[in-house]
Structure formats: structure tokens, C-alpha cells
Amino acid sequence: MDLRQFRDYKTSVFYPGCKQIIHKSWKPRIQLRLKSQAKTATQKKFKGLTAADLDLWTKSFDYLLSDPNGQMAFTSFLKSEFCEENIEFWLACEELKCTKTKETPSFTATDIYEKFIRIDSPKQINLDFHTRDCITKNLQDATMSCFVVAQGKIYNLMKNNAYPRFIQSDVYKELQAMASTRAKKNHRRVLH
């Protein structure tokens, strides 16, 4: 006879040979399973990450942003903090600066404005009224540098606010542990 009841994250199961009801909480088991899946995905995503890279990330926010793994890790952290629009805006501005043709910047600038600057936009970034107003006025004659002031403000916001939290976060600590484990495995391979 199989008796199952679901109450308050617990499953009560009657095992015939046991003659008693065993209460098993399923919530911690699901959380553990999700964490292990996330860890496996993280290991695949950051394949070439080394402890030296992580050390450089702690010393320089610019290095973190210039390193593809650093960008990915920082973006992942910002998503967990529900403020990924900051890094997305910063990266869009960097891409706009690298644009060579004359036609593309005004189109791309409009896209950036619609996505990040306009009030009630899907990923509106936190800017003061004067900066937002200045961008709105400059948008008619868009150049590759029309977002420089806003990008600088978002850069400083990330550097002074999110970056220190990232370095102290569980995401960063997991990456350190992963890089350390990988280094030990590689060291053992060299010795054998």
C-alpha cells in the first residue's frame, strides 16, 4: 500500500516493509538539484577561466569588463540583482563607439534611446533629469558620442555599487572554487 500526502513541502510515504510513515522534505532536494545543474552550466560557460583572471578582476573593474568571461560573470550577477540593464546599456554604448559608418549611428542611437533612456522604456536606466534631457536634445543630430555622459554615470554606478558586491558575492566565490579545482586537476595531470 502506497500512502502519499503533500503538506508544507513534505511528502509522507508509507513503505510496506518499514511499518511506519517516513516524512521526507522535497524542497531541499529540489534546491540541491537545481544548484548542481546551475553549477554544471557555470562550469561549461566559463571553460577557460583561471585563478589569475579572477585575481585581476578583483584588482581592476576595467579588466573585468574587458575580459569576455568577466563580462559574462558580471552580467550574470547583475541579472541576479535585477539590474542587468546597466551592463547592457554600457555594452551598447561601447558598440556604438566602434561603429564606422555614418548611417548606422543615428539608427543605433535611437535604438539605445528607446531601449534604455526613454521614460518607461523596457530597460530604463537610472539617470538624472538633466542627463536624460540632454540626450533627448542631442538625439536629433546623433553622433557616436551622444551617450558619453550617461555611459560614464552608469560606469561609475556599476564600479562603485555593483562591482564591490560582485567581488563579495556567491557567484564570484563559486567561480573561485571552480578555477581552484580546475587548477588542481591540471596540476595533477602534469605530475602524472
Question: How would you portray this structure in words?
Answer:
- The chain is mainly alpha-helical and 192 residues long.
- 67% of the residues lie in helices and 7% in strands.
- It has helices at 27-45, 51-59, 61-66, 68-80, 85-97, 103-117, 129-138, 148-168, 170-191; strands at 4-7, 10-14, 21-25.
- A 3-stranded antiparallel beta sheet has the order 1-2-3.
- Strand 2 and strand 3 (21-25) form a beta hairpin.
- Helix 5 (85-97) packs antiparallel against helix 6.
- It is elongated, with a radius of gyration of 24 Å.
- The protein starts with a strand and ends with a helix.
- Residues 1-9 have low confidence and may be disordered.
What composes the largest sheet? Answer: 3 strands, antiparallel
The fraction of residues assigned to DSSP E strands is 5-15%
Overall pLDDT metric: 78
| Radius of gyration based on Cα positions | 24 Å
Total of DSSP H or I helical runs spanning 4+ residues: 9
Going by helix content, strand content and strand pairing, the class is mainly alpha
- Cα(first) to Cα(last) distance is 55 Å
Number of strands: 3
Percent of residues in helices comes to: 55-70%
Runs with pLDDT <50, length 5+?
1-9
Which sequence of SSEs, written as H and E, runs from N to C? EEEHHHHHHHHH
- Gross morphology is elongated
For the largest beta sheet, what order do the strands appear in spatially?
1-2-3
In short:
The protein is mainly alpha-helical and 192 residues long.
